Amino acid sequence: PRDPFPPFLTHYFPKCEHLTMALLVDYWEHKAHLSRELRAVLSSHASAVDHQQKVVKRTRGEGVVGRGGQALTVCGDYGTICGIYVVPDTFLMWADNAMREIV
Asked: How far apart are CA 90 and CA 72, in angstroms?
């Protein structure tokens, strides 16, 4: 008979800065491959555009902070995120470039 598998530690959570760094390093190492895969994802039935201020609340930058900065999110079929952009305000003229990039 085999020894029982040791219990998994369920109380360990990485610190936010470690998790963020790990995700960023992974992104930069695989950016070309991720971009190629994302270009293959198509949305044919639905799309949604949404602005959220809370997402960019802690963003630093003269063009966004203190001027109503928003996160513009474009979603496709089944909630697939097609793009996330930081824009100065909720005017849809900022969505023009985002939509051109997605389509």
From this structure: 8
pLDDT in tens, 15-72: 888 888 888 899 899 988 988 887 777 777 777 888 787 766 666 666 555 556 788 8
pTM of this structure: 0.53
Q: How big is the CA angle at 45 (ends 37 and 90), to the nearest 5 degrees? A: 80
DSSP tag of 58: T
Closest CA to 94 of 64, 66, 55, 65: 64
Tokens of 101: 């990039």
Nearest to residue 86, comparing CAs of 102, 75, 97, 100? Answer: 97
